[in-house]
Amino acid sequence: MSDQASAGPLPVPAEVRSSKKFFTSEKTTSILYPIITFVLLLVVWESSVTYFNVPDYMFPRIMPVMRELYTGYVDGLMYPHLIYTLKSTLAGYVIGCTLAIIVGALLAESRTFEKFVYPFVIALQSTPKVAIAPLIMIWCGYGLASKIVMVATMCFFPLFVNTISGIRQTDPAMLNMMRAFSSPGWLTFFRVKMFAAAGHIFAGLQISIVFALIGAVVGEFVASSAGLGWLVQSAMANFNTPLMFASIFSLVALGLAGTSLVRFVHRRVVFWDRSVKAASH
Amino acid sequence: MLKGDPMNAVPSHAFAAPNPAAMGLPLDPAVAASLQAGQDDAILRVDGMSVVYPSSRGPTSAVVNLNMTLKKGEFVSVLGPSGCGKSTLLSVLAGLQRATSGKASVFGKPMVGKPHPNVGIVFQRPTLLPWLTVLENILIPIETMRLRKPDYMDRAQELLKLVALEKFANHYPDELSGGMQQRVSIARSMIHNPGLLLMDEPFAALDAMTRERMSIELQDILRVSQQSVLFITHSIPEAVFLSDRVLMMSSSPGRFIEEVTIDIPRPRIAETMATSAFAELCGSLRRLYIH
């Protein structure tokens, strides 16, 4: 795109060329264009709600939502809930993902272990985790612990499946090479398979972060006294739709922050993966 | 073996495998003597080896009744069309699979599906680990054989110099060209100073020009490192250029049909490929290939 200016037969003044480059360059467009879409969405939202005269409890205008966000984050009423959800999400995510990688690696490496547990793993995977949320409340109480367990259960499966397929998809030529140089199995595992699976594992970590938030919110829906999910539900009881919007936007922000963090670490750790490099441009 | 006029020597040096002496073929006395010596200090020995694979249409033979020896310092090529079982032979010698019948031994140790530590191997693809630097990749055999890495750092640097990649020690494989990557894998195969190198069509994945240059470079590397080599290839000029002996294999099931001694004096250089002796040898092998 940026070549068009220089390819033209007529000499183009420098400042024109540079401004053209600025507005069409890959870097600018990837930031500017989504902002344009965002502003357009806001305009459509505000104008249609005003035009059709929709009441605030059905679909609030932008200002009441902004007011809720202001009282939430400037006066600080939202922080306890944000921190509660963040705590359960992070703790559950770490626990669920650690277990997923360990059990996934064991299962990928040991056919015997696989035969013992695989059918049950499939059955568990097919269970809608949301349905067992009330059970978890009974077992772990209504506090933070039950939310952590809920998040961990949700996180586990996407990463577990990706860990197995990642390890199994290791290039057989590499395994053959390690074998030809008399490598013991554990060394091949830590030197080759774990690295070969890293791309898949990070993809799983990215899916799991989204699942973690779902787990936290569902846990708070079922029984809680704090958290952004609980805030959404209690706002519903009062028809406080602007507060629901503010809470949902906070959850979206959490999800976005989590995914970008995982993507950032992915690029740093799996530096040799060409598909990651290509995706980052 | 390297002396004498190659033009005259070719016809009399070409004889039939598996055991020409036993078959009573007339032999050049010098070759007969070297063969005899080979029998005694052979570092690699294959006796009546066959490999049979199970398949949906019943058992299929990959190679049948192979006999060969390789003595210290020798460069022997196994030449044959794709799918003739050359790689199966190498795979058994590398300890990656077992022979169905017959015997194969390396340095006197029977090969029964376990690699010999005194062997280095180069594959068709470089098979470097992309998350390790060139230097770390070269040191992989040291790690896998549970040797002390610091003891081999100097040797790693020497080998990098030998394959002309000393400036790339800390680069990652994907920053290197295909030819450079294959040179890294050659250095890797030599890091533990093995007595025998097994090379499985190491230049097959490279373009024709790089391939020719790599042959010359490999010969120069080996003149310094003095390793014995069993080299698998389907390229006639490559086999002639590099080898002391070429074993010709028929297509499936693979058996040795001819053994040709290459007595073009060393060092062989790029111009060697343009000599009539070289062309003559390639021609006689090509005729065997077609019939």
Name some characteristics of this structure:
A: mainly alpha, MetI-like fold, 13 helices, 81% helix, 0% strand, B: 291 residues, Rossmann fold, six-stranded mixed beta sheet, disordered N terminus
Structure description:
The complex is a heterodimer of chains A (281) and B (291). Chain A has 281 residues and is mostly helical. Chain A has helices at 3-7, 14-24, 26-51, 62-73, 79-109, 111-126, 133-140, 144-168, 172-180, 185-222, 228-237, 241-269, 274-280. Chain A starts with a helix and ends with a helix. Chain B has helices spanning 6-13, 29-40, 86-93, 134-138, 140-144, 153-162, 178-190, 208-225, 236-242, 276-290, and strands at residues 42-53, 60-71, 75-79, 101-106, 109-110, 119-122, 196-200, 228-233, 245-249, 256-261. Chain B has 291 residues and is an alpha/beta fold. The longest helix of chain B is centred in the last third of the chain and has 18 residues, at 208-225. Chain B has one domain: Rossmann fold, CATH 3.40.50. Classes of the chains: A mainly alpha (281), B alpha/beta (291). Chain A binds chain B through residues 171, 173-174, 176-184, 187, 191-192, 195, 198, 271-272, 274, and chain B through 94-96, 114-115, 117, 121, 123, 125, 127, 129-131, 140-141, 143-146, 172, 174.
